[in-house]
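Quarterly update from the structural biology core.
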Amino acid sequence: MVSIFVRSLVYNVLFYLVLAFWVIVGIPTYIMPRWAIMNIARYWARSSIWLMRVICNTRVEYRGLEKIPKGPLIVASKHQSMWETFALLQFFDQPLFILKRELKWIPLFGWYLIKSDMIGVNRGAGGRKLIDMARGAGEEVRRGRQLIIFPEGTRTSVDAPPQYKSGVAQIYVESGVTCIPVALNSGLFWPRRTFMRYPGTLVVEFLDPLPPGLSRREFLTRVSAVIEEATNRLVEATRREQAQLFGRVPSAVSAKV
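Predicted structure, tokenized:
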């Protein structure tokens, strides 16, 4: 455990140093087209994932990449850690995120979000504003972007009861495009509210796409069911592996995360 603690500490320090490095290197992209900023974001994602493998011995396995459609798309992902907020964007040429508007106020980093046309949302806004946001997101997707969205709205602990929000269904209806669900087990390697990073195989699984044209109710029922079933399967398989590796599941990633 001491070794994992030290590796986690080293990784976290380097993670933010690498982030600062790419923020500075990418300054010239402020006056360039959006694709330039997206390339910097992909370099940051890949370098952070590489560091996690080298320092923490956390390997990543991507499944179902062949299922990702080209063009406009909704990517509805399980959200267990910060990891997927940067890792998923590397697979899409025009990724789009909906994020807290306050993130756009951060010097340098926030300017990237503005330049790359990410959608800022006031979580305390009324229903009318949120409907307008969903329509705006749908318009952006129809223009050819890939919306990466976390239907539960926030990070959830590995064993927390799922609470899918209706916003993703509204955007799905507004955009009229395919949605690809994503399951993962990242919370077992990058848990919430701790800097510990655990070794093993982090799995991201792209599931069968859901076609456009479903009703909001049917879409929300189907997307939540397939994500939860696949995520639970990945988590249980990983816990068995961790039990063999550690002799038990590490307390920080147990059912009480």
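DSSP finds seven helices and seven strands in the chain.
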